[in-house]
Amino acid sequence: xxxxxxxxxxxxxxxxxxxxxxxxxxxxxxxxxxxxxxxxxxxxxxxxxxxxxxxxxxxxxxxxxxxxxxxxxxxxxxxxxxxxxxxxxxxxxxxxxxxxxxxxxxxxxxxxxxxxxxxxxxxxxxxxxxxxxxxxxxxxxxxxxxxxxxxxxxxxxxxxxxxxxxxxxxxxxxxxxxxxxxxxxxxxxxxxxxxxxxxxxxxxxxxxxxxxx
Length: 213
Known about the structure:
The protein is α/β, with parallel strands linked by helices.
């Protein structure tokens, strides 16, 4: 019996084995730059080749600053960052001060949500794009599944941002986070992940925000 238990324990330690109570492994992930957040994310970072849905309780709480360390890594790999239909004009000096190479940041303005959806999918599939962010109101599950496939095929970190009041619904997205302010820090609620539920949010100190990005 002891030998059988030992053999089972050894088997369960294999990296290809995932137990439901654990955080699921992720083939490729970008460290977020925040140890507490990485500890609860599959693969210990933002998933590359997948869609992440982010629900923001209020804008201007440091939500973009949360992603900047990972975006710097994306550019260091020689890949571009694309933002589709951001609600505010990016503040270039703040981004540059955070280490973002503005020459590798592409901001796409769209006339309609349909145009934004098309641009997002193309960016996710583009091999030169390492991270694509989009602010979209769509809840069309067929379209969202297409985005997840595009992110996987392009090996791109796709972030689907939901503005205040917009509900999350991307069933195809393996990771969904809710962001809210909390005593000067950012509370990251893990609403969906491949792994056990968390009892509470992760508190991240993203620093003081000087302006809208």
